[in-house]
Design brief:
Blueprint lengths: L6 H24 L5 H33 L4 H12 L12 H14 L5 E4 L6 H10 L8 E5 L8 H6 E2 L11 E2 L1 H4 L4 E5 L6 H13 L1 E3 L6 E3 L3 E6 L3 H7 L4 H7 L2 E4 L10 H16 L5 E2 L1 H9 L5 H15 L3 E2 L6 H4 L4 H4 L9 H23 L4 H8 L3 H10 L4 H10 L8
Parallel strand pairs: 1-8, 1-9, 2-5, 5-8, 10-11
Antiparallel strand pairs: 3-4, 6-7
Helix pairs in contact: 1-2, 2-11, 3-4, 4-5, 8-10, 11-13, 16-17, 17-18
The structure holds adenosine-5'-triphosphate and magnesium ion.
């Protein structure tokens, strides 16, 4: 990907896409009849084209977002230099000095076969970074195999990692290759390495030392060439001190260490991340990017994000799904809403720009309150509401939509003892 100077690449890719569309059109034009298999084939081609369009639009969004805000020049230059060098960002967005530094380390590490340890709090993008390292190395078109070290039962660990021979244990009905063999020539991503039991750590250390494995129950030694990237949200050095992680393994795995910063330590990036993620959500949900009320923006820039970018991403996707046009505090998940300071939660009063505007605002507010009150009296049933206030149902629906009121959500909020909620 070379977004900033990507005109040429984009033209080529769009041209290739157009050519594919033309081939598809001509196939359809000359086909007398199509059987199911042929239809399926054409559908597959359409799916490929759709994915390509999504990829192109993603690249364009990235360029737009990454060039929109004037930021620290030297950081912008460093990121631009990464783009110039064809660095694959693979969805990593942001330009805090610490993130750019992490990407620069990843870029250098990617060109080698050295093990990399990615650490950082949950949701800071460790898995994404592991993919970036793979995508930027010369193994990019080779397998990328993920192992969640915390999710494998201890008795299956060895067989999962190294495979087994038929009959090695009850249930081993066939010979089976493990994850290391599957990753041969490519990368093995050992996620949550801090969860690997000590016995697994010993076995892993042996592979790191010899580049060889043995399937469970087999004497045969198999050479494997898998580049190791490990990730953890634990402090492995502390674990070494506590005796729960082997120090020799730690030093082997962490020849290159990439530490990802917590979102609360890169607050000045939150606004560009919100813009980037809102665009992403908009294209996924097939809608216009959601707007944020001032008090929601203010809250989101000061919130601590214990779940880091994953949490911010989830919030943006949620509000993009729930809000009609402008999202507000009520669209936040309940556990996050509980953290909104009382001061921020005060109703937002947009200053009127003229007398006419002031009258319109007052009338809108009165209309909204009236609707909410009548909706509650109608037990949150739109049909009853329409009858009670003498309007036809579709007009009432339009009015509710205009004010962002959802009968269903309001009923739920009422049952939960909260305030009325907006349309879903
Ligand atoms: N810099 C970033 N730019 C854009 N999206 C990001 C970035 N970092 C993380 N994300 C998004 O945040 C989510 C969490 O990322 P990821 O799974 O890589 O985190 P993690 O550190 O592995 O979390 P965990 O420790 O919980 O496994 C993903 O949806 C990912 O796409
Ligand atoms: Mg992860």
């Amino acid at each position: 990907m070379k977004p900033v100077d990507s005109n040429l690449e984009a033209t080529i890719s769009y041209a290739a896409l157009l050519e594919k569309i033309e081939i598809l059109r001509s196939t359809l034009r000359w086909a007398q009849t199509l059987d199911r298999a042929q239809i399926q084939k054409l559908l597959n081609q359409c799916t490929t084209m759709r994915d390509e369009v999504l990829r192109l639009s993603h690249t364009e969004r990235f360029v737009k977002a990454s060039t929109s805000a004037p930021r620290n020049q030297s950081i912008a230059q460093r990121r631009h230099a990464l783009l110039e060098r064809d660095f694959q960002f693979d969805g990593v967005f942001g330009d805090s000095p610490r993130l750019i530094e992490a990407l620069e380390i990843a870029e250098k590490a990617a060109r080698t076969d050295l093990p990399v340890l990615v650490d950082g709090e949950s949701g800071t993008g460790k898995e994404l970074m592991a993919k970036v390292i793979h995508a930027n190395g010369n193994r990019a078109d080779q397998p990328y195999i993920t192992v969640n070290c915390g999710a494998i039962p201890e008795n299956l660990l060895e067989s999962e990692l190294f495979g087994h021979k038929r009959g090695a244990f009850t249930g081993a009905n066939t010979d089976r290759a493990g994850k290391f063999e599957a990753a041969n020539g490519g990368t093995i991503f050992l996620d949550e390495i801090g969860e690997l039991p000590l016995i697994g750590q010993v076995k892993l250390l042996r592979v790191l030392q010899s580049n060889e494995i043995q399937r469970v129950g087999s004497d045969q030694v198999i050479s494997v060439d898998a580049r190791i990237v490990a990730a953890t949200n634990k402090n492995l050095l502390e674990m070494c001190k506590a005796g729960t992680f082997r120090e020799d393994l730690y030093y082997r795995l962490s020849i290159i260490q990439v530490t990802l910063p917590a979102l609360r330590d890169r607050r000045d990036e939150i606004s560009v991340l919100i813009e980037y993620l809102s665009n992403e959500a908009a294209s996924r949900l097939n809608r216009q990017p959601v707007k944020l009320s001032r008090r929601l923006t203010s809250f989101l820039s000061s919130y601590d994000y214990p779940g880091n970018i994953r949490e911010l991403r989830n919030i943006i996707f949620r509000i993009s799904c729930l809000a009609t046009e402008t999202a507000d505090l009520e669209h936040l998940p309940e556990n996050v809403r509980a953290k909104v300071p009382e001061q921020t939660a005060q109703p937002e009063v947009e200053p009127a720009t003229s007398l006419v505007d002031a009258k319109r605002k007052a009338s809108d507010e009165a209309e909204r309150s009236y609707l909410l009150e009548c909706l509650a009296k109608a037990n949150y049933r739109v049909t009853d509401l329409a009858r009670n206030i003498g309007m036809n149902r579709s007009h009432v629906q339009t009015l509710l939509k205009k004010h962002g009121i959802s009968a269903r959500q309001s009923l739920k909020a009422h049952a939960d003892g909260g305030s009325p909620a907006s349309l879903t």
